[in-house]
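User: Quick sanity check before I run a bigger batch. Here is a single chain. Can you write out its predicted 3D structure?
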Amino acid sequence: MLVLDVVKFHSTPEVPSTLRSNNIIPSLVPAGCTSLVQPLDVAINKPFKDILEDILDRRLDEYEESHSINLREIPSSNTNMIAEQRVLVSWSVGEAWETFNSRYQQLVITTFQKLGLTLPIDGSSDQELMVKGIKPSTLQIGDWSRQTGSRDGLGSGVEEEGQVRAQCNQGETGLASTAEVKEEAEEEAEEEATDSTQYVARF
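Assistant: Done. Predicted structure follows.
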């Protein structure tokens, strides 16, 4: 599955046709719903950016100590130092991503599951969906493989997309908040880590 925003060039006939010819299921995020159903916005961007900020600050401090140059205050005309700064940022992003994966793997798995991206497309597990601000009774996902009148699998039509957008904008309460989804995922990750530690200890 590939999750896409509803920009015009994602909705052209060529896009879904190409995706489906390569056995990729397209799923469009309705306008106004990115903060609710896009995994990165819901629970991933914030902890990753926090990790990146810490690592980048450390690397900048280390560079300043070893070179007596503050890369935080480089004029745009100093192309050599700008290049050095970009290299340092690239290394920081790589380290941050590795750190994030080691700490929040379960968060990523749970977030994708709660938002329905890794649930069966036949609707058999739709009760596991958790979307901030939308009541369970209003979530009608159904069997994607059997929907008719859809735009080549990109949704069940303009009317249905408008209903989803209205739900997002209305902000009805009743489902878990973003913080609750993240908290639950972190608790599961801690339990998983504890179980792993106990398993190693036994051997």
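The chain has six helices and two strands.

User: Great, the batch can go ahead then.
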